[in-house]
Patatin-like phospholipase RssA
Amino acid sequence: MAMKETKTEPVIGLALGSGSARGWAHIGIIQGLEEIGVRPQVVAGTSIGALVGAVYVSGQLEEFSKWVQALSSRDVFKLMDLSFSGGMVKGEKLFGFFEANHRNPNIEELEQRFVSVATEMKTGREIWITKGPILPAARASCALPGIFPPVKYRDSWMLDGGLVNPVPVSPCRALGADVVIAVNLNAQLVGAHLSRTSAQEVEHEVTNKTERTLWHKAVDYLSKSDGENPTFFDVVASSVNIMQDRVTRSRMAGDPPEMTLIPMLEDYALMDFHRAKQAIDEGRRLVEENAGMIRSWARLG
């Protein structure tokens, strides 16, 4: 007698890539997936992808989405503590605020499997963090060279995970994913720099004399241009994005995901974190556009 065939749903993995402010698109993609009934059992994140992924698997995405959409350019600037040691922004104010306002559960206690990808500064090794408090694990992945300084995690200094694995498909596979949906933020890189619009917006919003002085110093150093030569942020952003794009192509050629979603945010500057709504909307649009294929891979309907 023939055995009855049972239908089993695959383990879905979500690989959230690096890409600075463009990473707010991850929020919309996750929200869109949940709305069509696809809840990834495995989430891997690199850099901004690690931060959004950590918020998601710890059950705080909706509150986080509302907060980032309410940020103005001045709010973003006030969270950036300028530094000239190891990176332009210390990150202590930003992540201190974040940790004070968000839960910080241990990764191994979560319902979904999660991994944050970082780069060990001393050896250049790719580090997968799958245990311990989730927010420090995410922060260890967010140390963009030239912008944020290295992060001390346990006994090692960590750099941005995007240096070695910008779209973390392989960690998803290692944690048991049968089907991987990858989000690649670095496939279209035109205009990835500090926009003049962002600087002007903050300058108009700032009223305190001390804040205006600090901002002017930052603008002079980071984005002053003679119209012919690239600015500091142009150089840093372009260099990092080109590197990440090449690494992504190489890694994904060897271990391709079942699906790749590419948010079209080519006009986003490196630090345009105040433009969250547009990025989130683009993420949701992508899922809606590809809903049929996503549901097919997830064997839904």
User: Anything to note?
Assistant: Residues 232-254 form the longest helix (23 residues). Residues 190-204 have pLDDT under 50 and may be disordered. The first strand starts at residue 12 and ends at 16. The radius of gyration is 19 Å.
